[in-house]
Design goal:
Spore Coat Polysaccharide Biosynthesis Protein SpsA, Chain A, 9-stranded mixed β-sheet, Glyco_trans_2-like, hexosyltransferase activity, transferase, Nucleotide-diphossugar_trans
């Protein structure tokens, strides 16, 4: 079993636009980590709310930053990936935080014990500040296509091999909310390797675009199945109706998809 031998080249990318307090919270969670062998990139979309002063205050901890207008969240995330040098990418956007000061240390320790994979994913803590509640988004140990039709892997709770991210062309900039979900679906269908690590890596706060744009989310999902994934839409409908021997059906479907 080939294992991850060197995680000194991890890139953490935070994007921000007019979220001064969220950005500070994110940066502080990063620089407090006990494991520090990473580079840190901040991509700002031309903020005018004092965010740039926050970046300046933490300049000693940031390897690269830029502030300029962008074409949306995923355009900014792709900018960060292009500036990255790390073997793996972790997208921790403004407002999101690493779960505790030992999160990276624990993650890397577990990665060292596992086989080398293209994508590592963990559980994600979802926090609703408005209702003062939180819940754990528990991911499965083994992924299936049916999982992706009704759930997701959180980008703040996953590490993507940079070469894989670049080979796949990064995040689609045709969507405003679901491009991270679409990326993982396509990576799964393409046969890239995923490995689960049973821990909470990050906390995602349910007050952003992706958590509040339900109507837009539904519209984008519809467009994805009409365009990006049109060739499997009918199979997915059939898959939802399968109640017996689902894994045999899944293998048949994946075999068909990967030779498409």
């Amino acid at each position: 079993m080939e294992t991850v031998k060197n995680m000194s080249l991890l890139t953490i990318i935070s994007i921000n636009y007019n979220s001064k307090n969220g950005l500070q919270k994110t940066i502080e969670s990063v620089i407090k980590q006990s494991w520090k062998d990473f580079e840190y990139i901040v991509i700002d979309g031309g903020s005018t709310d004092g965010s740039l002063e926050v970046v300046k205050n933490y300049q000693d901890y940031i390897n690269y930053d830029i502030s300029e207008p962008d074409n949306g969240v995923f355009n900014a995330m792709n900018k960060g990936a292009k500036a990255a040098n790390g073997d793996y990418l972790l997208f921790l956007n403004s407002g999101d935080i690493l779960h505790n000061d030992e999160s990276l240390s624990k993650l890397v320790a577990q990665m060292m014990q596992k086989s080398d994979s293209d994508i590592y994913y963990t559980n994600l803590l979802l926090a609703d500040l408005e209702n003062d509640t939180e819940r754990i988004h528990q991911c499965p140990n083994h992924l299936t296509l049916t999982y992706f039709t009704g759930s997701f892997i959180g980008h703040p709770a996953s590490l993507i091999k940079r070469t894989v991210f670049n080979t796949m062309g990064g995040y689609s900039e045709d969507y405003h909310i679901i491009s991270d979900w679409l990326f993982f679906v396509k990576a799964f269908l393409a046969g890239y390797t995923f490995q689960y690590i049973d821990m909470i890596l990050s906390t995602f706060f349910l007050d952003g675009v992706s958590s509040n744009g339900n109507a837009q989310h539904a519209e984008e999902v519809k467009r994805v199945y009409q365009n990006e994934l049109s060739f499997i839409a009918s199979d997915m409908k059939s898959l939802r109706k399968v109640n017996t021997r689902p894994y045999r059906f899944m293998e048949k479907l994946l075999s068909k998809i990967r030779t498409h």
